[in-house]
Structure formats: C-alpha cells, structure tokens
Amino acid sequence: MKTINIVAGGPKDLIPDLTGYMAEHILWIGVDKGTVTLLDAGIIPDEAFGDFDSITEQERLRIQKAAPALHVYQAEKDQTDLDLALDWALEKQPDIIQIFGITGGRADHFLGNIQLLYRGVKTNIKIRLIDKQNHIQMFPPGEYDIEKDENKRYISFIPFSEEIHELTLTGFKYPLNKCHIMLGSTLCISNELIHSRGTFSFAKGILIMIRSTD
C-alpha cells in the first residue's frame, strides 16, 4: 500500500511519535515548520513545501541542507502551504495520505484542514488527520468495516453534508438502523464498538468519523 505522510507545523506536543508510522514505501512530506519536526524525529523529508515564514534562519539553513526537494513559495498566495503539499500528494495517487500537525493553534487553520478531507472523497483517496488523541476521516456513501482499537475507543460520526440518509451502525454500543441525521445533530457523538469489529453504512451524504482517546 502506497502511503504519503504529511507533517504540518502544528504544536509538537499534539503530534504522536512519528517513528511509529515509519514503514517501507512511505513518502514523508514536510510543510513549513513541520519540516523541522520531521528532522527532529530523525526523518529526512522526501519533499518540503512552504513559505517558511515561521522558522528561524538557522532552521531554514538546516532544511536547505537536509531536504532533497524543496518547494518555496511567497507568503502572499491563494493556497495554504498544506494545500499545496496536498495537491502534490494527490497527484501521486497513493492509497492513503496521513496528515499530522494540523490540530491545536489557530482555529481557522484547523477548520480549513477539515475541509481538505473532502478532496479525498472527490478523488477516491483516503485522507486521515492524526494527532495524539484523534484520527479523523471523511466518507462518501457506502458500507465500511471498522475494527476495535483500545487506544481510540470513542467513535463519533458528524454530518459534513446537510443530511445523512439511512445511517446504520452495527456492532456498536448505541446501534442505529437507517437513521436520518441532519447537519448540526450530536446524536452520534461518543459511541463505542462492543465487538472486535463493526460496520457503518449510509445511503446519501458526506460523513466525518472521529476516533478518539479520552
């Protein structure tokens, strides 16, 4: 499975141990200060993107020396640094893109990053946002298997579209059968699997799933 891991410049205390996500056939992408986070973890980025306006001159020289492919942009531009990195990643057509360093800090950046998940839905490429406490994904209509994870016990489903049609949850503590969920509903917050695996399905809409620790 081809995986691209992108590390953005969010607070380092919210980023999990990146070495736990290392494997063969993974490309690592640094975004602005996230490139420094990668280097601090002992990971040489395959590509680095950004205007690099949030780093020191010493960090800039370190990145220039270490990163084999550096994409530098002006600070005044129509896309965020992460958006540009995601464009590059999507063009490579991986099986999954995992993005770190996108929670905490500015709320406008975080909400904008949630919107980026929709591009995975449109291109049929899985995108997952990851921090120490949460895994966040977005799904189009369909049926999906889900395995129990004791490190991420709590599972919430939040509408991204105006309506979710026929949401069904099986194997959950609070099951549903073809339930209609409107945007703004908190009905599906903080559920749990009661078996080793379960399924969720829906007929229409776009759904966000968040798996969390307490």
Automatic annotation (TrEMBL):
The answer, when asked if Nucleotide-binding is one of the entry's keywords, is: yes
State its Enzyme Commission number(s). Answer: 2.7.6.2
Main enzyme class: transferase
Q: What SUPFAM superfamilies does the database record attribute to this sequence?
A: Thiamin pyrophosphokinase, catalytic domain, Thiamin pyrophosphokinase, substrate-binding domain
Keyword annotations: ATP-binding, Kinase, Nucleotide-binding, Transferase
Q: Which Pfam families match?
A: TPK_B1_binding (PF04265), TPK_catalytic (PF04263)
Q: Single Gene Ontology BP term?
A: thiamine metabolic process
- GO terms, molecular function: ATP binding; kinase activity; thiamine binding; thiamine diphosphokinase activity
Q: Which organism is it from?
A: Bacillus spizizenii (Bacillus subtilis subsp. spizizenii)
Segments forming domain Thiamin pyrophosphokinase thiamin-binding: 142-208
Which named protein is this? Thiamine diphosphokinase
